[in-house]
Amino acid sequence: EGIANLTIKAENVFQTVSFDMDLDIVGMIRSLAIEDFSVVTAKGEIKSFLVTFMSLGSGTCMVVDWGDDQASSVYGDEKACSDDFAWLEYLPDEVTTSMTISHNYTGSGVYKISILAQNRISHVKDSLKFVVTSVPCNPPKVEIMNKVAFYLEAKKYRRGYTADIVSVSGINCSLTFKTTKISGIDIMKVRQRKDWTLFEVEPDLGGISHPVQYMDTISSSKKPVLSIPINFLPYGYYKVVYTLAMHGKNIFALLEQIHSLLR
Fold first, then answer.
1. What count of other Cβ atoms lies within 10 Å of the Cβ of residue 13?
2. What is the pLDDT of residue 179?
3. Is 139 helix (H, G, I), strand (E, B) or coil?
């Protein structure tokens, strides 16, 4: 990246003409991801997130919508951010390929943080749902078998075969062997809800395009193993998101989202 000085010259037997120009080389922003490592905080506590990119370019501006009633925050190149997002709170922190951001959520409940990162030639976005609560349970422990973080490393599936995406999970509460209630919560009555969502991924930048339609026609979309039918998806890259929520009487929904990439 940087400014390159370029001279273009044309000549024949009679004359020579040259033209000087500056070429601004800018890198592309690729593959944004948000992670909170399933750490649950209570209202009034500082909640931290790890934000990662596969690559960044100069002039990057990152906008964070915290998902509550407080104003969005802006990080990154001051000039680029002031030009495009002058009305938002600017925080003078450099955007790096791995960075931690923090926020104070003043109420209990389920929130969704959304992030947009852009420069002059590219933009990517991502979001993450999480819970703020004082209940002594963490979100369910969830994993997707053979998951990958970056779309260029996505596992390949053939359209002519059923594609099985397998999740494993477990409840994560501070219980002893004989304890069945915590803070008025009957653990035996806590229910689970499972949901799979698919998003198209832009092949050049790794950004999320839009959700795949007709997921409700897949009979396994609310089961631990998602079986994508033959020829259901066109050729391309996809982000698969698995959400497992615990909910019941006297408890805010405790949820965990995990994702992987497929091709």
1. 4
2. 33
3. strand
Tokens (6 digits) for 30: 């690729």
Q: How far is CA 33 from CA 54, 139, 154, 207, 261, in A?
A: 9, 19, 15, 10, 12
Quote the pTM value: 0.64
255: closest CA among 167, 140, 133?
140
Distance of CA 101 to the CA centre of its chain: 14
- Distance (Å, whole) CA 133 – CA 138: 9
Largest CA distance in the chain: 98
Helix and strand numbers, DSSP H then E, in the chain: 1, 19
Mode of pairing for the β-strands spanning 2-11 and 61-65: unpaired
Give the pLDDT confidence of 16-63 residue by residue, as tens digits.
Answer: 888 878 766 668 898 899 988 877 888 899 999 999 999 998 889 999
DSSP string for 84-147 = H-TTSEEE-----SEEEEEEE--S-EEEEEEEEEE-SS-EEEEEEEEEE--SSEEEEEEEETT-
Question: Which pair of structure tokens corresponds to residue 225?
Answer: 């193993």
Q: Which domains does the chain have, with CATH numbers?
A: 28-134 (2.60.40.10), 135-263 (2.60.40.10)
What integer pLDDT is reported at residue 254 of this predicted model?
Answer: 64
